[in-house]
Amino acid sequence: MQKEVIQVAGMTCGHCKQAVEGAASSVKGVSRAEVDLKAGNVTVEMEEGTNITEIKEEIEDQGYDIN
């Protein structure tokens, strides 16, 4: 299992948290995604070889910017 912290701009509320966690979790190989609104990031736990770019694209598709 590997962890990746992704900086996400524009998250301000519980809905944002839910949207970003859902988007990241939808990618094959992701076992857990947890947003920290104060830090402005999402920590993703995933299997080795999971496509980080795909995770970032799913988050951007929800209307958020990756820093």
Automatic annotation (TrEMBL):
SUPFAM superfamilies: HMA, heavy metal-associated domain. The keyword Metal-binding applies. Pfam families: HMA. Keywords: Metal-binding. One of its GO terms (molecular function) is copper ion binding. One of its GO terms (biological process) is copper ion transport. InterPro entries: Cu-bd, HMA_dom, HMA_dom_sf. This is Cation transporter. It comes from Alkalicoccus halolimnae.
